[in-house]
């Protein structure tokens, strides 16, 4: 269980910071949490399934999934924060990109 909770918690913390910097006037906690509750566990469960089933080259799959998630989250941010698509996608790209980079450090 902690295998899924720790990445979710770290992702939410990192993305909360990034989104707050980009959208300082917005109330972001519930929105960022909601979006990540939809995307993060699904990604981690699927990646774990790939590893358990011994897929040798999972990086292309992970990259495609990360791109799909950042687009999905960008669209969500557009509607949740009543902003335009450009700002929603940019926010999602930066939040997910920084979160993804942190996954290599931790």
How would you describe this protein?
The chain has 106 residues and is an all-alpha fold. It has one domain (2-105). Helix content is 83%, strand content 0%. The protein contains four helices and no strands.
What's a quick, concise take on this entry?
This protein has 106 residues and is mainly α. Helix content is 83%, strand content 0%.
Secondary structure: elements and pairs:
Elements: H1 2-22, H2 29-52, H3 59-80, H4 85-105
Helix pairs in contact: 1-2, 1-4, 2-3, 3-4
What labels would you give this structure?
single chain; 106 residues; mainly alpha
Helix content: over 70%
| Tally of structural domains | 1
Which runs of at least 5 residues are low in confidence (pLDDT < 50)? none
Shape: globular
Q: Give the H and E element order.
A: HHHH
